[in-house]
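Running log. JK asked me to keep both predictions on one page so they can be read side by side. First protein, sequence followed by its tokens:
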Amino acid sequence: MPEATDEMLARLVDNEWYRVEGFRITADARYLGRVGISHAHATFHAGGFSGELSPDSRFVIRKHATRVFIVFRQFDSSRYHASPADHVAGWVPAEDEATAQNWVDRINVQIRDFDVR
């Protein structure tokens, strides 16, 4: 997936399928919206795609006029891709930004605990 641009996020503003209500725990992963981080391995799942976490992997907040987007950045660049690879996890209404930031901070701790280098 390419870098999540403002134009890409704007197309998802009214898509309720991308609305995030909180964490969803499955047998193998903890999901924040459409992106899951494995409980046992340094891997993620996003929309039928799985991949390895990189030292750059993290969730970030991207602001829009009426929404706050949660984006998973797999990497900033790699030996195969000069640009970032992002996966849109979803959005929350702008007034829930603090809650979304809390979720992002908590799941980023889980990612850092894998200590991928």
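And the second, directly underneath as requested:
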Amino acid sequence: MNAQSLSIVVPNKACINNCKFCVARMYESKFIDQLDSNKKFYDLYLEDYRKRIEFARDNGCNTVMLTGDSEPQQNRRFLELFGIINNELEKPFRCIEMQTTGVLLDEDYLRFLRSHVGVTTISLSISSFNDEENRDIIQTKFPLQLKELCKIIKRRDFNLRLSLNMTSAFNNYTADDIFKISKKLGADQITFRIMYSSLMNTEQDKWLGEHTCKAELISRINKYITSNGTFLEKLDFGAERYSVNEMSVVVDNDCMNVSARDVLKYMVLYPNCKLYSKWNDKGSLIF
């Protein structure tokens, strides 16, 4: 069972943001956190966790994505633990990415992520290029200035991926505008994330119904990519990757991995120390 990457859900009690479109808030979490060091069988579950990471590695996973239902950097102790576990593997992961809105990240934290955790790519979730609007959409109380943060990320020599959540905030931009701004921010990679709706009429679904970008914009972006870019390859999960303006570009139409395919887009490792092929679905248990 080959998978492109391993998504590690970093345990936290609650997210410090409250993104208006947050998928995690559409569902009630079903997974117990067994990685609490105060629990009676912590040592047993820690070994289980290590075995799952090794299993994913043995089955073709070359990339780890530190992610979850919250901001991964909220739990520094866990990130320290992951860094130790990974370095002790017979074949450690070399490509380690973090998905984040960027809150709480500063020079010192980025240094820790690079030196101890081994993070190589910061995948920065952006819902608007306007700082005020971006903060409003993710509903954070923390300061967040994209231009300055991107500058620090690049100064620390991370790969910078802009994961653009395609909200209506981008409707007033042309495709050319989006690529020029991304380049100016220092992006090495861009992922255009088509917004996910659960179709369950949640508050998040209702917000998305009113604030998803126009289909016309996605069409213009796709046309811009094929007209101005060089096709690189088709990824295992079906998306096509292009080189545009010296940036790697992917349009992700299936961020929640709901489409059936022969190769898994990712495996998901929850804090209950078990591996799944889908988000928030216990029926997708692998090991």
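Observation for JK regarding the second prediction: Confidence is low (pLDDT under 50) at residues 254-261.
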